[in-house]
């Protein structure tokens, strides 16, 4: 329990950055929302508990200690609670966790039986950082996993405000698997695109053109009766870049691999997804080395520290290994990110100079590594145009028009 966070929430001050969260919190706090450190009170006075604690991956399995602890505490409260209560796991957990770990702890701590005495379910979340509120308010699907009809009915009631959204009603194990499968598929699309991009770069082909051609397959971008084409958002994951990061994709794919191996499966495809992804930041450095074989004393600017735009989250960001290796090679590193500098400074201290202004960050750079698809980086050609010696720009997201820059390199760009 973190009393400081609870106090901040009750004061309408969100402890994390998320677009629109502060307004939303201020609108509801003290009205129909309240944070507390008193778990017993909260469980006793509610009908449903949603467990949303972290499940960090320690390299061999997800760490269930937080989930176990909270399940034990909820179970203890259920011992004396006479009203029917439902416990829902929202944390991402490998298949079987809700029924084989959480449920027995609840039964033991409460002295009651799951099913007749209380409900148990699993309701995965599909929120993207930076879009979390939108994704919640306008969900594409809602997965309701329950051990019995009554548990599923409780979840149905909880989401009654979304009558038109597709709902999957299933058991907890399937709900858990849906979550991992969804993230693993998107991660696979990215690594697939990167493998193709790396080959393109080598053989004199531009992956951006290749993917444009691939996206036009009507099975990927359907053509409607009126001749217009639908461009599904999934296509944005079919694009080459400097690799995926964040707190979900790398961890979830690795956790599913570990789970699968434990079940006797080789998990060869998903292992390759991770392998390709971990090698991808190196492609940025390889492109830099082509122009600067010795980085000692070179002034290099890293644009974008966040793992993706719209967040200050730098966890597993490809910028981290790249910046570290630049420093190790003796480069003079300048960093820029619209909102993630503070987080990055915690990692790199004063070894990296972070600039608050994009133009400043570019002003004396010999090379610029574009790592995050922040929209403001579209101004790059304009900003470097007037510099006396325009820097080499290495586009890790292939978001710039390559002809707009005099010295340009990009991931997946081969020149015949
Ligand atoms: C991801 C999923 O997209 C969510 O559906 C899921 O709920 C969440 O994980 C989770 O498990 O909690 P998130 O990690 O916030 O959400 O970020 P994404 O926007 O999916 O980005 C993940 C990675 O994919 C990033 O490194 C990003 O750069 C990359 N990406 C994202 C692309 O390469 N292309 C895109 O179009 C979008």
Q: What report would you give on this structure?
A:
- The protein is of the alpha/beta class and 416 residues long.
- Helices cover 43% and strands 11% of the residues.
- It has 15 helices and 11 strands.
- The protein has helices spanning 3-10, 21-28, 39-44, 65-80, 97-110, 132-137, 149-158, 172-203, 207-215, 249-262, 268-291, 319-328, 341-348, 358-363, 380-385, and strands at residues 48-51, 86-89, 119-122, 141-146, 166-170, 299-303, 332-336, 352-354, 367-370, 392-395, 408-410.
- The strands form 2 sheets. A 6-stranded parallel β-sheet has the order 8-7-6-9-10-11.
- Helix 13 links the parallel strand 7 (332-336) and strand 8.
- The protein is globular.
- The model has no long low-confidence stretch (mean pLDDT 96).
- It binds uridine-5'-diphosphate-glucuronic acid.
- The site of uridine-5'-diphosphate-glucuronic acid has 19 residues, from helix 8.
Bound molecules: uridine-5'-diphosphate-glucuronic acid
Distance between the termini: 59 Å
H-E order: HHHEHEHEHEHEHHHHEHEHEHEHEE
**What profile does the largest beta sheet have?**
6 strands, parallel
**Regarding quaternary structure, how should these chains be classified?**
single chain
- Structural class of the helices, strands and pairings? alpha/beta
- Average pLDDT, all residues: 96
Strand order of the largest sheet: 8-7-6-9-10-11
Number of strands: 11
CA-based shape: globular
Number of helices: 15
| Low-pLDDT residue intervals, each spanning 5 or more residues | none
Q: How large a portion of the residues is in β-strands, by DSSP E?
A: 5-15%
Helicity, in percent?
Answer: 40-55%
């Amino acid at each position: 329990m973190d009393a400081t966070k609870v106090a901040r929430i009750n004061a309408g001050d969100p402890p994390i950055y998320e677009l629109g969260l502060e307004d939303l919190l201020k609108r509801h706090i003290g009205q129909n929302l309240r944070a507390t450190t008193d778990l017993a009170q909260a469980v006793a006075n509610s009908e449903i508990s949603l467990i949303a604690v972290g499940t960090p991956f320690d390299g061999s399995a997800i760490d269930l200690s937080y989930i176990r602890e909270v399940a034990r505490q909820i179970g203890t409260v259920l011992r004396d609670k006479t009203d029917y209560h439902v416990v829902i796991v929202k944390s991402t957990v490998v298949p079987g966790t809700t029924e084989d770990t959480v449920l027995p702890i609840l039964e033991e701590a409460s002295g009651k039986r799951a099913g007749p005495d209380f409900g148990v379910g699993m309701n995965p979340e599909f929120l993207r950082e930076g879009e979390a509120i939108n994704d919640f308010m306008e969900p594409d699907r809602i997965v309701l996993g329950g051990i019995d009809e009554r548990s599923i009915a409780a979840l149905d009631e909880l989401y009654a405000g979304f009558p038109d959204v597709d709902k999957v009603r299933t058991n907890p194990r399937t709900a858990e698997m849906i979550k991992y499968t969804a993230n693993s598929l998107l991660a696979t699309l990215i690594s697939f695109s990167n493998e193709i991009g790396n080959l393109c770069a080598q053989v004199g082909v531009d992956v951006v053109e290749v993917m444009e051609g691939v996206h036009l397959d009507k099975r990927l971008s359907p053509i409607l009766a009126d001749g217009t084409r639908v461009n599904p958002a999934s296509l944005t994951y079919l694009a080459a870049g400097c690799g995926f990061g964040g707190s979900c994709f790398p961890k979830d794919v690795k956790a599913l691999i570990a789970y699968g191996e434990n079940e006797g499966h080789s998990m060869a495809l998903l292992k390759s997804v991770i392998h390709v992804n971990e090698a991808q930041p190196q492609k940025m450095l390889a492109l830099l080395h082509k122009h600067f074989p010795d980085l000692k004393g070179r002034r290099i600017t890293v644009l974008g520290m966040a793992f993706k735009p719209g967040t200050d989250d730098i966890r597993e960001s490809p910028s981290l290994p790249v910046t570290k290796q630049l420093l190790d090679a003796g480069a003079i590193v300048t960093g820029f990110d619209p909102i993630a500098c503070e987080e990055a400074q915690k990692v790199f201290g004063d070894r990296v100079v972070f600039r608050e202004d994009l133009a400043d960050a570019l002003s004396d750079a010999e090379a610029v590594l574009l790592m995050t698809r922040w929209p403001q980086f579209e101004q790059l050609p304009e900003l470097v145009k007037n510099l006396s010696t325009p820097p080499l720009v290495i586009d890790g997201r292939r978001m710039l028009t390559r002809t707009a820059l005099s010295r340009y390199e990009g991931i997946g760009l081969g020149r015949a």
